[in-house]
Structures are given as C-alpha cells and as structure tokens.
Design brief:
Layout (H helix, E strand, L loop, with lengths): L12 H10 L16 H19 L3 E4 L3 E2 L6 E2 L3 E5 H4 L12 E6 L4 H14 L4 E6 L4 E9 L2 E10 L4 E3 L5 E3 L5
Parallel strand pairs: 5-6
Antiparallel strand pairs: 1-4, 2-3, 4-5, 6-7, 7-8, 9-10
Length: 180
Amino acid sequence: MATAPEHSEGIDPERALKYAIQRIRGDRAEIIDSVTPTWDHENATEEIRDQIKPRAKEPGYVTGSGNLDLPSSPNWYVPDIAVVPKQIAKGGHALQPAETILIVEVSSESDAETDRVIKRKRYAEYGAPLYLLVDRVEQSITLFAEPSRLGYTHVDGPHPFGTSLHLPAPFDLDLDTSGL
C-alpha cells in the first residue's frame, strides 16, 4: 500500500486534519496510532462530569467533548469536557471556546505541559470563560477565570486533590476532588 508523503508541497498537515475531522459525518472518528486516555484518566473525567452535569442541565446546558475551533489558527481542540448552551450544541459544527460555559482538561503525563501552558493560553485568548485543569501529574486542580488576550486574570489554585474547589455560577458548586 502506498503512503502519502509526510509533507506534500503546499499542504499543511495539521490544517488538512482539522478540515477532515470537522467534516466527518457519523458518530465516530478514529485516529490510529494515537495515545488514548487511560482508565484513570477516564475515571477523573467521569468524576468531574458526574458532579457538574446535574447543575448544567438546569439552565439548559449540555456536557460533552465536541471539537472547539480556534479561528484564524490551524488548531482545534477536543477537550475532555465542555459545557455549552444546548441550543448552539445542536448546530452540527465546531464551536469556539467563547461559546462554552466551562472547559475541563484532565492532563496525563503525555499532555500535561500542553494542558498547563498552551491550552490555558489559547482558551483565554479565544474567550473561554472558565477553564478547569485537572492535573493528574501534579495531583492538583486549578480553575482559571476572566479570560483576556494575555491569559486568565483570575486563578484559583493549584489545590491538591482532596480539596474542595468552588465552581461559580451557573454551577455554584463545591467540586469534590477526593475521587480524582
């Protein structure tokens, strides 16, 4: 079987992948030879989702992990959890971070630095109002709020796992981190 050259002239592989993923129709896409989440990563994600989901449903939000587009950038992210208004989640298209209510990333050793630095900067730059970082490497949780082009202006944490962390409205919830 022939394989395509790694970098064809004039084709940006990251932009091409972004284009393809956003246009896949159906329920699933699978990327072979990628790092998949471990079960402890999935456990941490579910612990957070189980706590925020009841509070998200009340005002008409949905929790999921759909793709987030960063316009004018070749990048897009698929967060572990995003909370978005239900009416815009039905559009069938990628959303932008500014359209979210909350973004949650659960880090692993392979992506911890990306979640701590790059995604935090990009989510703030693109207006995500709340970014919750569950750092499994450092065993800590941090809530970033009040985004600006230069980063988040309010940081609550890092707090060690086991510490309760308050999520502001619309959640108004003390997040239990003991099961992370």
